[in-house]
């Protein structure tokens, strides 16, 4: 049985209108997403802004209300995470995108990292301090940094504080929402390496949400590509990068900048070709409402939302 | 041979912190030619944007030394009025965040019209509108008449950036400074915007200074590349040279920290330490020294200069000769990406 299983997940946000503020419409941010992942693996959720990837992540952890569908974690139904019991909430944690706004500027690092401990574990002041110091050292910061405030750290260090907070309760699943998008390349490398290290040490499972396909390729085992709240393609890293089938995935993969300037000309031609194909076949790949069709398997691991007509 | 458009000579931009001046841009010399993209790369805090702002005269309180010659004319000596005429006319800038660069209370058409009017007061209303619409069209906007009437919040990020570009090219500038023009955009939109910039470069025969931290963007766009670290240029070379045969330790470290197809099963390279803040910059010796502590101190020059190691390939300091990554054999000269 899968470690985490998401079945036909839907998250719709109401649109209020009129003088009485009645619900006049819904925005279907996530509209029927299903996937499952194994323990110890990294699953990548990819899409452009507005595709619903972050909403999916937030819905799993209970930050967005689930409209329909089912999420089960390790055999437990956690669709309504508030009723699922405290243990589950300890075991699933989140790392946020922006290390500048996700840490409370008025709190010391000690209080930031100790917050989850204070909520779930009864520790004396000494024990708590010791635990926080261990965590801070684990993420590669000096033990003295626990009395500092977030503004005294660089972006990469702040993101490590965010990671320390996420792993304080020894979670099993971490949902990382664009954890390196706000960071410089060398700092990004630091955080990515570190996330791989703690994954090995603690046996973590990641859901890695991102739009940078270079980073996704480096980190993930399996990938789901989202567009307008639906999946257009799912598969292993090799499936997606070496054998993309859906026109939208092809276009995304073609847009990855190549670091070798010698390939420049070929890449530009390739992109134009894909763009032409995209414009020509767009109507075939998406239904009348502009949404992707349902996924069909083309191999054991590879699912594609292929056209239904013709 | 393409004509020299902009020549930066020993530019030094200093900011005052507690009664002392600290140079954020330190002795930078560069040239930009017609029909050329010069990329300036570096991490945040390396002085890339401070350099761009100095060129455009956008710093309020900074002390600027050195010369910026636009077609032989020293613009650092310009009065505020002269500078205003230059800005937006011969030289213009594309900013990183299109949402903050646009006025949220003005219609797109009026924002473009404003720029046109500033530089040609006699332009009639109808001409102004037709020019603005044609600019939007040139920036690749599908329904220019419709967008003309819209407000910035009604447009997507990519569309907004196209509007910002339309404003920047309104008066046919000869030098275009693009400060992280695609950082806020999705990858597919990014490649479209880069395409657009390339087209404009060819059409207008303009020189583009592209400021970015994304090495992928550099590899795709640039003709020449300058790598900045801690306010200084550490390496300048033709784009093929820089990626095929990088020399400076900083350039090599940056290149090997980018995840790519080959790095999937290996660890990414991490540059030790952090970019020093303006106040704590080492002012003497090699500025990159503290971040490659495993390299013998004697490898560094006392007063690092830019050395021309091959025609048009400059590297600062002598430490590049002895540099190796800690996880590779000393003396292993097999670097570069090919």
Short description:
The complex is a heterodimer of chains A (310) and B (338). By secondary structure, chain A is of the alpha/beta class. Chain A folds into 2 domains: 4-228, Rossmann fold, CATH 3.40.50; 247-310, no CATH class.
Low-confidence stretches of chain A: none
| CATH C-level of the largest domain in chain A | Alpha Beta
The profile of the biggest β sheet of chain A is: 8 strands, mixed
Name the CATH architecture of the largest domain in chain A: 3-Layer(aba) Sandwich
**Percent range for helical residues of chain B?**
25-40%
Topology-level CATH name of the domain at 1-90 and 177-183 and 214-312 in chain B: Rossmann fold
The proportion of strand residues of chain A reads 15-25%
- Mean pLDDT across all amino acids of chain A: 89
Biggest interface, residues from each chain: A-B, 41 and 40 residues
Span from first to last CA of chain B? 30 Å
Q: Say what oligomer this is.
A: heterodimer
Q: What Rg of chain B is obtained from the alpha carbons, in whole angstroms?
A: 21 Å
Question: Strand order within the widest sheet of chain A?
Answer: 6-7-8-3-9-10-12-11
Output the CATH homologous superfamily of the domain at 1-90 and 177-183 and 214-312 in chain B.
P-loop containing nucleotide triphosphate hydrolases
Strand order of the largest sheet of chain B: 6-7-8-3-9-10-12-11
Helix-strand blueprint:
The complex is a heterodimer of chains A (310) and B (338).
Chain A: E1 4-17, E2 22-37, E3 42-46, H1 53-61, E4 68-73, E5 76-77, H2 86-91, E6 92-95, H3 109-120, H4 125-138, H5 155-167, E7 173-177, H6 185-202, E8 205-210, H7 213-219, E9 222-227, E10 230-236, H8 237-242, H9 247-254, H10 264-285, E11 296-297, E12 303-304
Parallel strand pairs in A: 3-8, 3-9, 6-7, 7-8
Antiparallel strand pairs in A: 1-2, 1-4, 4-5, 9-10, 10-12, 11-12
Helix pairs in contact in A: 3-4, 3-5, 4-5, 5-6, 9-10
Chain B: E1 4-17, E2 20-33, E3 36-41, H1 48-56, E4 63-70, E5 73-74, H2 80-86, E6 91-94, H3 98-101, H4 108-119, H5 125-138, H6 144-148, H7 157-168, E7 175-179, H8 187-204, E8 207-212, H9 215-221, E9 224-229, E10 232-238, H10 239-244, H11 249-256, E11 306-310, E12 313-316
């Amino acid at each position: 049985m899968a470690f985490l299983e998401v079945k036909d997940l839907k998250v719709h946000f109401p649109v209020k209108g009129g003088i009485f503020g009645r619900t006049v419409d819904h925005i279907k941010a996530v509209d029927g997403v299903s996937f499952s992942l194994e323990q110890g693996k990294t699953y990548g959720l990819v899409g452009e802004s507005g595709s619903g990837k972050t909403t999916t992540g937030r819905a799993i952890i209970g930050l967005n209300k689930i409209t329909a569908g089912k999420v089960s974690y390790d055999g437990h139904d956690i669709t309504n995470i508030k009723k699922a019991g405290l243990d589950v909430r300890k075991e699933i944690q989140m790392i946020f995108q922006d290390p500048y706004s996700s840490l409370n500027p008025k709190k010391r690092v000690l209080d930031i990292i100790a917050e989850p401990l204070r909520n779930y574990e009864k520790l004396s002041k000494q024990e708590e301090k010791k635990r926080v110091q261990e965590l801070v050292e684990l993420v590669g910061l000096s033990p003295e940094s626990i009395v500092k405030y977030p503004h005294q750290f660089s972006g990469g260090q702040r993101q490590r504080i965010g990671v320390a907070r996420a792993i304080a309760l020894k979670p099993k699943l971490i949902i990382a929402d664009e954890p390196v998008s706000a960071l410089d390349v060398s700092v990004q490398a630091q955080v990515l390496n570190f996330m791989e290290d703690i994954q090995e040490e603690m046996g973590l499972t990641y859901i890695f949400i991102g739009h940078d396909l270079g980073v996704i390729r480096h980190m993930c085992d399996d990938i789901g590509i989202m567009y307008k709240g639906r999946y257009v393609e799912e598969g292993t890293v090799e499936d997606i990068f070496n054998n993309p089938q859906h026109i939208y995935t092809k276009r995304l993969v073609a847009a990855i900048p190549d670091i070798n300037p010698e390939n420049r000309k070929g890449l530009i031609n390739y992109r134009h070709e894909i763009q032409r194909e995209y414009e020509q076949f767009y109507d075939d790949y998406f239904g009348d409402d502009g949404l992707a069709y349902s996924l069909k398997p083309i191999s054991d691991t590879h699912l594609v939302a292929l056209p239904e007509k013709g | 041979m393409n004509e020299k458009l902009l020549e930066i000579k020993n530019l030094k931009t200093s900011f005052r912190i507690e009664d002392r001046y600290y140079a954020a841009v330190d002795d930078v010399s560069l040239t930009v030619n017609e029909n050329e993209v010069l990329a300036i790369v570096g991490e945040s805090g390396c002085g890339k944007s401070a350099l761009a702002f100095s060129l455009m005269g956008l710093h309020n309180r900074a002390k600027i030394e050195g010369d910026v010659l636009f077609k032989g004319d020293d613009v650092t000596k310009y009065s505020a009025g002269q500078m205003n005429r230059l800005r937006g006319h011969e030289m213009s800038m594309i900013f990183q965040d299109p949402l903050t660069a646009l006025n949220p209370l003005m219609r797109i058409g009026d924002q473009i019209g404003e720029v046109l009017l500033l530089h040609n007061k006699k332009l009639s209303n109808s001409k102004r509108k037709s020019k603005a619409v044609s600019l939007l069209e040139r920036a690749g906007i599908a329904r220019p008449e419709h967008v003309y009437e819209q407000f910035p919040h009604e447009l997507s990020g990519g569309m907004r950036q196209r509007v910002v570009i339309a404003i920047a090219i309104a008066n046919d500038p000869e030098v275009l400074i693009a400060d992280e023009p695609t950082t806020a955009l999705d990858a597919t939109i990014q490649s479209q915007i880069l395409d657009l910039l390339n087209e404009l470069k060819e059409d207008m025969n303009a020189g583009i200074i592209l400021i970015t931290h994304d090495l992928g963007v550099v590899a795709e766009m640039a003709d020449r590349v300058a790598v900045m670290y801690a306010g200084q240029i550490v390496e300048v070379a033709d784009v093929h040279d820089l990626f095929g045969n990088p020399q400076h330790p900083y350039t090599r470290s940056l290149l090997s920290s980018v995840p790519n197809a080959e790095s999937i099963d290996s660890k990414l390279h991490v540059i030790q330490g952090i970019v020093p803040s303006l106040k704590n910059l080492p002012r003497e010796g090699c500025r990159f020294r503290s971040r490659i502590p495993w390299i013998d101190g004697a490898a560094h020059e006392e007063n690092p200069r830019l050395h021309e190691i091959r025609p048009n390939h400059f590297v600062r300091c002598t430490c590049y000769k002895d540099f190796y990554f800690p996880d590779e054999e000393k003396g292993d000269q097999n670097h570069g990406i090919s």
